[in-house]
Amino acid sequence: MYASIRTMLKRDAGQFLLGVFFVLALGISFPRVYATDEVQYYAWLRSIWFDHDVNFENEYRTFAELNPNSGIAESLLQPNRIRTKTNLYGNIAPIGSAILWAPWFIGTDILLRGVHVIGIGQHIPADGYSWPYQRAVSYSSALYACVGLLMVRRFTQRWVPPWHSTVSTLAFWLATPLVFYMTVQMPFAHANAFFVSALFVRSWLWQRDNPDRWEPWAAIGATLGGLCLVREQLILFAIIPVVSEGIRVWNMPSAYVSRLARSILHYVICTVAMIIVVSPQFLAYMVVNGQPTPASEVSNKLNWCSPHAMDTLIDFDPRPEPICGVVDEPVRIPAWSRGGLVWSPILVFGIVGLLMFARAHPSYGIPMVAAFILQIWLNGAFGTTWHLSGAFGFRRYIECTPFFVVGGAYLLQSFKQRHVTTLALVIVGMLVVWNIGLIINGTVFNSLTNVRRGLQWPELWEWQFTLPQRLWELGGKFFDRCRVLKNGC
Fold this sequence. Notes:
Radius of gyration: 23 Å
Order of helices and strands: HHHHHHHHHHHHHHHHHHHHHH
Distance between the termini: 38 Å
Structural class: mainly alpha
Largest sheet: none
Helix content: 55-70%
Shape: globular
Strand content: under 5%
């Protein structure tokens, strides 16, 4: 056994290290379906598999009874959530997560029914609500995200040494909200979406390495459709192959003209693959909403002028930009409390490194920067919900993590002096500890509501710096999962 571990460490110590951290994180995770967003993602799978319909009323009511303080009844079971064309309760969650969870959920159901037949586990209902089902989808989300981390680390090594890619991957996992959505709110879409975004970037790089083959274009189209299935806003990642092809044409116009027919065929293959993969989502819209478009709760809150684009990074003034003509939006939060760079300062290094990378490798870096800019624009367009109050961190940038990892690794390898590299590692370690402190404050202690409302000073400093003392005083009660879990306790 020890010989095999030594061999693994010699072969790829970074991958082994990621695996160790993943197992440790999984051991302290909270695999359950709890609040409104999670229930909506989960309801697709449970309703279709058990009830053979998309009438979510029973799922909503059951989870509202399991978690009476989760706000499910107040949010999902109101009369205005009933679609007039179908008389069904709405569901604004895309179906991609349910599709990714399906093998694990169905396998759990078959296994549970099988052990019931032989007289084991009769006290655990095979109803789609009990803990085995919830753990199946939660752990599968974490596993998908772990595969995504391994993929990102691997393709980052195209430009930097393995050690730098490993450090960057760990940093942008453990010092950002990604680790929270892999361990605490596991049934959210973000872990799954991160996996698909990593798969998409990998497909694009495959196409860059094989410009004359059609298979990479089919993979790009399929993963683009997958991104839209998991989180609709990620369809804007399509800008990556578009800009990439534009750069190629700009650099070699004569070569592009000579193979124009083949290029058009590739684009058609990509488009067809994307339409095929994303088509179940439009079918779901039609069945639930009575029309093949998203629910009004989503579409009506978009202001395409993006009055809060920069606020999603640093909300120094959370009022909408005057140029967008929004005059009646209430200021819901104090300044400097919700922006992504405030919650996760390590993103500053990822963005700086990404810009440096784009300058050195424009064929790869410029498309990534373009995709990130589009996400900034769209996130700032979400009307009065741009700030994500009630969420841990600015979670809408999690799917851009592959870009941040590449940028962070490139920045780290640019430090030639040893003492500068050491200082960078110390800063990364401090930012990881800071993020873990926020997570503990937001789950174990009563500052959960305050943390999710925003990072407010000077209370934040007190929460963070007194955390070791409060953990010491808490003692063994720190491991009481009922302090965090709202069902099953």
